[in-house]
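Quarterly update, task 2.4: flavin-adenine dinucleotide-bound model.
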Amino acid sequence: DDRIVIVGAGVGGAQTAAALREHGWTGRLTLLGDEPHPPYDRPPLSKDVLAGKADSTVFDLDWAALDVELLTGRRALRLEGAERIVVTDGGPVHYDHLVAATGASAVPLPGALGVPGVHLLRTVDDALALRAALRPGARVVIVGAGWIGAETATAAAALGCGVTVVEAGPEPLPGALPAELGRLTRDWYAAAGVELRTGSPVAEVEAAAVHLADGTLLEADAVVVGVGARPATGWLGDSGVTLDDHGAVLADARLRTTLSGVHALGDCASFPSGRFGTRLTVQHWDNALHGARTVAADLLGGDGAPYDPVPYFWSEQFGRMVQYAGHHPAADRLLWRGAPEDAGWTVLWLRGDVPVALLAVDRPRDLAQGRRLIERATPLDPAAAADPGTPLKSA
Ligand code: FAD
C-alpha cells in the first residue's frame, strides 16, 4: 500500500491530509510536525490569543477518524530521495509520496536570539509567552512595522502596555505596500496611542533595552521582533529538492518539486504564477489552504489544472479589517475608490484597465467583488470603479 508522508503540521499540512481523505485517498497517511501540539491555526495568535480571547486555535479535525497517523514533536532532519526516506529525530520514515509543508520561521535579530524578554511570534507557545509579558503598564518595543508588528501593537496597546514600534523603513508595511499607502496607517498607530518610529534601524537588542542606530536607547520590559519569516527548508538541503535564492522550495505549476515523489506548498514553497508572469512565494494563510487542495488533487491523479491563485490575505489592525488580493507589482497605475479620510477605502491597482490587485480597508464587499475581477482579468470602467457607492464590476 502506498504511503503519503506530510512533513509540517500547520494549516497546509493538516489541510492536505484532510483533503486527501475527503477526495478518496485510502492508503497510509502520516502527518508529522515538530511542534508538540496537534495542528492549529496561526492567524488568531496575533489577534485573539494575544488579546486573551482564546488560548487554543487547534483545528477541529478528528485525526483518528480520518485515519491519519499524527506524529507530533517529530522533526524532519533530512530527506534521502533515492531511498524515499525522511530521516527524523525519531528515526527514519519511509514514504512513497512526500509533501513538504514546513512553512516558515520567524527571522531573529542577530544577537537577540535567546535574550531574556525578547520574543518572536510564530507559534502558539510564542504567543502565550508574549501574552504573559503584555501586562498593563509594561513597556513594549516592537521591532518591525509589518503585519505582525501592527497586530501585536494593536493587542499590546489594548492591554494597556506602553507601546513603541520601530521600523527601519520609511513607512509602515515597507515590504508589502508602496510607501504612499503604508504612510496612511501612521494615524492608526497614533490614534491607538502607539509611538511609531520609522527610519529607525535597530543597532542592538539587550535584555531590557533596544538601541537604535541613531543612539537612542528604548527601555523595554518586552521586545517583540517582527521582521519577517523565512522558509523552513533547511532539512531539504542536499536532498535533490531545489530551493530558490530565498530558500523556498522551487515548485512547478502542480506544486511538484524537482525531486520525484515530492510536492511542496504553503509558506515554504514558490510557484510559477501564470497569471502574473512571475514566480511567487506567498506567506499567507489562503495560499497554504489552496495549495493543499492542489497537492491532494495531483496526488489523486487530478485534472492537471495549474496552481495559479490570486493571492489573498487579511490583517486586523487598530480596529480595522485590512484585506489584499492580487499582486500589485504587475500594475501600471493606482485607482482610488473613496478617500483615506473616509471610514473605509479601497485602492485598485490596474494594468491598463484590468485590475491586478486591490487593498481594502473596512470594505469587505470591495474585496470580494474585486477579487473576482482580478481572477477573471477583465477590464473595468475606471470612472465607475472610482465611485465607492457603486459595486465593483467589469466594464
Ligand atoms: P506553517 O503554518 O508555518 O506550518 C508549518 C509547520 O511545520 C510548523 O508547525 C513548523 O513547526 C513545522 N516544521 C517546520 N520545520 C519542520 C521540520 N523540519 N520537521 C517537522 N516539522 C517542521 N496569514 C494571513 O493571511 N492572514 C493573517 O491574518 C495572518 N496572521 C498571522 C499571524 C501570525 C502570528 C503568524 C505567525 C502568521 C500569520 N499569517 C496570516 C500567515 C499564515 O499563518 C501562514 O501563511 C500559514 O500558517 C502558512 O501555513 P503553512 O502550513 O505553510 O506553514
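Highlight for this quarter: The chain has a mean pLDDT of 97.
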